[in-house]
Amino acid sequence: MSFSELGLSEAIVRAVSERGYTEPTPIQKQAIPAVLSGGDLLAGAQTGTGKTAGFVLPILHRLSDSSVKGPSSGRPPIRALILIPTRELAAQVEESVREYGKHLKLNSMTMIGGVNINPQITKLRSRVDILVATPGRLLDHVQQKTVDLSHVEILVLDEADRMLDMGFIRDIKKILMLLPRQRQNLLFSATFSDEIKTLADSLLNQPAMIEVARRNATADKVTHKVYPVDRDKKRPLLAHLIKENNWHQVLVFTRTKHGANQLAEYLTKGGISSLAIHGNKSQSARTRALSEFKDGSLQVLVATDIAARGIDIIDLPHVVNFELPNVPEDYVHRIGRTGRAGQTGEAVSLVCVDELKLQADIERLLKRELPSEVVPGFEPDLTIKPEPIQNGRGSAPGRGGQSRGRAAPGSAARKPAGSGGGNSTRPPALHRSGGRHR
Questions:
Q1: What percent of the chain has a predicted confidence (pLDDT) above 70?
Q2: How far apart are CA 286 and CA 204, in angstroms?
Q3: Angle formed by the axes of helices 234-244 and 257-269, to 10°?
Q4: Could you give the CA distance from residue 86 to residue 113 in angstroms, rounded to a whole number?
Q5: Residue 419 and which of 4, 21, 224, 333 are 20 to 30 A apart at CA?
């Protein structure tokens, strides 16, 4: 099946072809006709499945339909709103809008935090058909009365599961109140938690449902490996693995921002070019680190879960869990960065005694046992007792990013927004709006 057979215009098919794509992915084959029909959509798709084009292409087609007339007077309104959880992902989605729509007379813009708001205000004075925004900065504009959402025809909630994890539910509800009641709603999520189902029930009207991967499944072409190791040997083991296997373009996950900084510094001192990326970094620093990582000049990018959400590299070969996530589903999100678009990938986890319960939780979710291998010279000391996993407010030096904290050992509680770990007893989506300044 070709893109033209899906009902897309010649101008859009030409732009897709110019980007080197000839055949739609499974999510695109299902999502594009569903969006073109004008109805609501609930789509479950992992990262790397081509879901961005799955909604961008039909939105471009619908908005470029000359038979649909807009307001007869005044400035052309914003017609499509795409809400995105992170700045990096928003920039990438808007780039896709521009690339796929380059032969169309449609304008788009990115609205994100961490940068000067004034150029965005200036841009809004001209024509903007498609707005790609993070919720916090969008509400900043709403407060300043610089944006009008009263004519939005299509709303997209992308990475909805992460949006809720980051505490954006209150912001989303505020934004929904500003939109017309009659509109098309598209919700994309990698996982279908109870919170996602609740949101979908309140937002979507008799939606088409698409799920291209088994719930909470990991990419088929990703190999998994666990290396048991003492908590204070994690850093030297990681350096050993990178050098011994000559790894390049390694994405490493830590639980905390402080831990990310410490690990990047340790690796750099050991001759492995590394940078950390997290919410406390300026937007320019994050953009530079991502750019260097993508072009291969940076060997290792150390990231927290939230910061890494927007990383989109088709052939990223290695993802390392320097620390296992507190929430098992986040393992799926993390390793979803590799093994994308049919490529092979490797997911490595360094697991100390503190994290054995977290490993068991992940294996239960995946319905499989993760293969394990002890590296000679890094054999774990079986007499070491587990310590509580730290609460994300800092980490003790030499602890491999972990220290004593309030959370119970192996706690699988959700993380509070704005931290890499935690002992919150209920999902932040239900009681926080702490994602505003990510």
A1: 79
A2: 34
A3: 50
A4: 9
A5: 224
Encoding tokens for residue 333? 């999100």
Residues forming a β-bridge with 133: 83, 111
Has domain 222-430 been given CATH number 3.40.718.10?
A: no
The domain locations on the chain are 4-211, 222-430
Contact 125, 102 (CB under 8 A): no
Structure tokens at 261: 């900084």
Query: Please, what sign has the CA dihedral across residues 302, 360, 222, 53?
Result: negative
pLDDT over 90 at 237, yes or no:
yes
pTM (global) more than 0.90: no
Contact at 8 Å (CB) between 290 and 90? no
Q: 103-145 pLDDT, tens per residue?
A: 999 999 999 988 899 999 999 999 999 999 999 999 999 999 9
Q: Which residue has the tokens 């990703």?
A: 222
Fold of 4-211: Rossmann fold (3.40.50)
318-340 confidence digits (pLDDT tens): 899 999 988 887 887 787 666 55
CA atoms of 427 and 372, how far apart (whole Å) = 31
The CA distances from residue 251 to 276, 301, 338, in Å, are 10, 5, 9
Q: Is the pLDDT of residue 215 over 50?
A: no
